[in-house]
User: Fold these one by one.
Assistant:
Number 1:
Amino acid sequence: MWQYIAKRVLLFLPTLFIITLISFGVSRLAPGDPAAAKVGQGAEGGMSERSSINEKTIELIRQQWHLDKPIWQQYVIWTGGILGFQMAPCFQDGQTDLQKASFTGVPDFGMSFMDNRPVFDKMLERVPITLTMNILAIILAYVIAVPLGVYSATHPGSSLDRLSTFVLFALYSLPVFWVGTLAVTFLANPEFISWFPSGGLQTPGAAGWSVGQQVADYAWHLVLPMVVYVYADFAFISRQMRSSMLEVIRMDYVRTARAKGLDNRTVVFKHALRNALIPLITILAAVLPRLIGGSVIVETIFSIPGMGELSYKALIGRDYPMIMAVFTISATLTLLGMLVSDILYSVVDPRISFGRKSS
């Protein structure tokens, strides 16, 4: 197994290189000039009045952000920063000497085009919020969906099975943006029912409250976003668990276990459940990138300052360093999730081997 893990880790580098190369090129294909947009936001007069000043300012900003260089040089500079190399510009002619790169050993995702702050610092402010929401969503989805899927599979055709099948299919068919909008309109609106806050994570003035009150206020603000966040995953995981469990309990070794006189609980939870979890491991591998990427729709609707909202604003503002940082981290977590899922396969089912089959 360790040899297999080593091979997969070695494959990370070329795979990640190709992903970042494509992502870097695609991000540069977006229409518009971030430097011109930056100047346009700060200009008070018309372009005809300040054309010469604006042109000089745009050129300086482009030099500062390395946008005046060929795209391959921009990629080299960006990759060097990720690997811990700092490309110091020569301020005499506004050019960057790639041969005078200093090794700092600290990965640098660059400076945000929007506010000239380090990208990594901005991400550190948002990641805890997104991470908390996603971990809670995963726990809630699996804790509720897996037992419900097992019960539906072991009691096919029962009233609860038919009811849960109808409800879960209905939930899965509802788009997230529509459910989120309805939740804010009808459950966080004084004109209808104002049970929950309409957005944010904290009530204004809550900083002076006690710790218990602040925690309760934080949880109160998270109720609606978490419901909107979880319902689709909950429905999907439950249906996957039911179908996988139905397939497993019909296998010969399960019938053999029943023929030996084992009680139903032992057969289901000791023999069948372990093999039925394999599809759920595949689903779990796809969850890792979302731990950092977050949900753009949920965080935008509920005004939650997480990574999803930050990514959306970066795309709108053509903030290339922030976009590339999110792409790179998401790609790394995707590759890591695939490796973790492969390892968990052998833990759940010892018959799965990483080595070559013996002839």
Number 2:
Amino acid sequence: MSTHICDALIVACIDFRFQKYIQNWLTKKFKNKTYDYVGFAGSTKNLDIIMNQLDISVRLHHIKQVILIHHEDCGAYGKESTHDRHAKDLKKAEKLINKKYPDLKVDLYYLHLDGEFEEIK
């Protein structure tokens, strides 16, 4: 059985309004790199499902990095779609990932409606 290795797992929402921004950003940021991509409503809102996908990506593709992207005006969050809520959920996901996979680099982003990527620290 051959081994398939890629650089990262990208997790973002399915919202069509942001796909062009995400693809353009990935084309620049991941030039000459490979990644697994998970598109899921609310991005990491349902963390159990995302962790399952992460487990598979780690096991099968030996990733070294995880990029989590939430966005402004997310329908999956409804009225709870605030910058603070997204930042809190991103940090919660990062903490869980770091606990389970301490060697993975985790980057968090909040994508604005105008296409600006804001890094969450």
